[in-house]
Design brief:
The chain has 107 residues and is mainly alpha-helical. The chain has two domains: 1-72; 76-107, no CATH class. 72% of the residues lie in helices and 11% in strands. The protein has three helices and two strands; from the N terminus they run ααββα. The chain has helices at residues 2-55, 58-69, 96-106; strands at residues 82-87, 90-95. A two-stranded antiparallel ribbon has the order 1-2. A hairpin with a 2-residue loop joins strand 1 and strand 2. The longest helix has 54 residues, at 2-55. The chain is elongated, with a radius of gyration of 33 Å.
């Protein structure tokens, strides 16, 4: 009888330890997968950021202009830029600078 009372807690502890180990292993696997996904996203972010910085640098833009557009692109004054919108089935053209000045007044 004493043996049974001694064996039952030991078996219970063994089963409980097995359950805890299995649960811990699942959690560790999820953490590892999360870290791997984060690493992949960081690599993608760094590549996209590098591409963005590389492609949008002024030197690169001028180089692409010369290479692909020759003399097709010309500089214009910012005052000549307009925005076009459709409002209530009408075409509305606003000057870019006036729009910005108007937005600053509202603030």
């Amino acid at each position: 009888m004493r043996r049974i009372f001694a064996i039952i807690p030991i078996i219970f502890l063994i089963l409980f330890t097995t359950y805890i180990k299995g649960t811990t292993k699942k959690i560790e696997k999820e953490i590892f997968n999360g870290k791997e996904e984060l690493r992949i996203f960081k690599n993608k972010y760094e590549l996209i950021l590098l591409e963005h910085n590389y492609l949008t640098s002024p030197e690169k833009l001028f180089e692409y202009q010369k290479k692909y557009f020759d003399d097709e692109l010309t500089m214009i004054e910012i005052e000549n830029i307009s925005s076009i919108k459709f409002e209530k089935k009408k075409l509305v053209i606003n000057k870019f600078i006036q729009k910005k000045i108007h937005e600053n007044r509202e603030k």
